[in-house]
Amino acid sequence: MFKFLKGVVGGSGTGPKDLPYNIGEPYPSAWGSWTHQRGTSKEDGSSVSIFSLSGSSSQDGHLAAGRNGVKRLRTVRHPNILSFLHSSEAEISDGSTMKHTIYIVTEPVMPLSEKIKELNLTGTQRDEYFAWGLHQISKAVSFLNNDCKLVHGNVCLASVVVTPTLDWKLHAFDVLSEFDGNSEASNSAMLQYEWLIGSQYKPMELVKSDWGSIRKSPPWAIDSWGLGCLIYELFSGMKLSKTEELRNTSFIPKSLLPDYQRLLSSTPSRRLNPLKLIDNSEYFHNKLVETIQFMEILNLKDSVEKDSFFRKLPNLAEQLPRQIVLKKLLPLLSSALEFGSAAAPALTALLKMGSWLSTEEFNIKVLPTIVKLFASNDRAIRVALLQHIDQFGESLSSQIVDEQVFPHVANGFADTSAFLRELTLKSMLVLAPKLSQRTISGSLLKYLSKLQVDEEPAIRTNTTILLGNIASYLNEATRKRVLINAFTVRALRDTFSPARAAGIMALSATISYYDMAEISTRILPNIVVLTSDPDGDVRTKAFQAIDQFLLIAKQHHEKLITGDTNETAGTGVPSIAGNASLLGWAMSSLTLKGKASEHGSLASANATTTPDLTTSNPSSDTASSAVNISDQPRPSSPTSTDGGWGEADSGLLQEDHDTDKEGWDDIEPLEEQKPPSLASIQAAQQRPVVHQKSQNTSFSQPKTAATRTSKAGDEDDLWGPVAVPAPRTVPHIVNVQPAAPKEDDGLWGSIAVAPPKTTSRPLKTKASAALDDSDPWAAIAAPPPTTKAKPLSLGRGRGTKPASARLGAQRIDRNSSGS
């Protein structure tokens, strides 16, 4: 209220004080005696058009006709008729005289003649745009004549204006009047103000003032003649100066010429109805008109028609006038997508059109629609957004990505569709640099932790590579907590060979983030194992990575000798082949679908010489059995999920994110188990083991020997409970010989290769160790053999002497006697 009063008191400076609009610069041309000026709203600054008409007195004939035009424009509403906003009449002082002025405020438009000059269209594009404009004006005239029984009276180039979206609209309603052929009255507005119509635009019956003939004519007779005048002025590029010029048809397109001649028929009753002009004319059947018409009635089309139309639209848009596409089709398409009437393929057309805009225009006209689409529940829309995110991702601000885009995109990480999970993962290459550290640590890394154990091998592979690519956006504490665990504990032990290769590549690409202690104790030991990988590409990358990390170790050694300790791990180290194209490799392999045969290639290779084995986990009260993986289906989780990536802030995640072990921090390096000592081996040898027929027979060792740990200074064992079972090369459990004193006890001593099959003397052990009360097998152990020793491979247990040859015979006799 106060803002309105302020406008009334202060005025606009150049207009009436009660007009809530600022009047700007005038256009060079306008209809009749009106002045067409630019303007803005005082309230919100939006653009408007202001038409003004002045007279010396309130009884001036032009002002009387102008009041008729204001009344008609206020009451007649149609999409192709100028939209009325406000009107005012004021008495303004002009020096020593007072002038009465009428103001009409409408939507922002400009004269058609000015817009044609601005567009500067030629050839087919000009004809298509003129066809669309004439189509709109014909609809407006048909609405007035056929539906409202009104006569405009002065349809011409000056009575048409153009909106910012390049739509043509009819105005200049000063002479507009009702048409009643049965009335003999002669006081209608058309009769009163016919002198305002230029003589060159008057049909012959109006020039002669033959009102009887006019009343007997159809209501469209006068306006059909005006449409003919408009067509001539459009294609000739000149203002009509006299009626005889209408006979020059050299400018008129051939497809429009028959209708043009019927519009200008000398007999009023034979003139073409504007409604039939729209429906029957071949001229209006072109790509631009049909495309815009389809978009305007999109809600009436079925899904098949929509899908077919939007798939053709990107190529079709290249053939249409560029300015019309950007100012007319693009807003229609954005609105259709935003309100759900357009199909997913429309997004491709929207981005294609948006690529023709400047960055500022794209951010204003296209980006808001895209941001709203991320909240869509339509899976097809979500897929289309993720597939094209590289085209608009750079235009998204960090705040919009973090607050509006990522929360919706993150739903794709847990989607049941593997294809959508892949696209969501791929989109992080664009979105991750714009995320805050809180979102990365508290949300993104937990999602990636789950994807690294996804059932799809391609997703696991690319999750590893994504981590390598976004490592630079993690803070130092997060990198220390996540990278090595993710690349070694998860990736290097994956059953899918490209995933193992990706782990090596990721370690090499992030080499600058590791110190020497991590390289020597946590990275190199895990990579060395892969030098015997069944896959050749993995072995090649492993050797290359080893050379790279060893070069760092040598540089570190040299700097320690010289006393220079201020080195960086990755300084001066050339990257291995393929690291430079790490991002491209990830993108190309996103569509890779792992097969069961490929997924289990490593397992099959190891299983050829690996027997079934059950071991006791020193850090757990439960034992985990490792069955022959070549005979089992591929597990749902290819790598261990006992551990995670980190204790990130769980406040951003809901549901089961707080309970599942998803981070990498839970995969803390375990204490390295000390190799079995000689005493342990001797104690084990004196306890014979009875073979079971089942292939899954298990054996247990005393916990006192299994729970021994290394010294406090030893490095933690990264493999721990999530390690892949070690290669086993003998088909059954064998006796273990004590290691030679000159060699260190290895981690693999308990499952070492069997000794040569030759007669050997058993180890001498103490008698007190022959029977252990804690040994569950002691009660059923066979008596010590007394015959000549035979090869160990033929023995039945681990006694101090080989098995007796008569043991089997006695058992047979006992069985036979029992029967």
Automatic annotation (TrEMBL):
Skewed-composition ranges (Low complexity): 776-791
Protein kinase domain span: 1-284
Signal peptide: none
Skewed-composition ranges (Basic and acidic residues): 654-664
Single GO MF descriptor: protein kinase activity
Residues covered by region (Disordered): 602-725, 738-819
Compositionally skewed regions (Polar residues) per UniProt: 603-642, 692-710
UniProt-recorded name of the protein: Protein kinase domain-containing protein
Gene source species: Musa acuminata subsp. malaccensis (Wild banana)
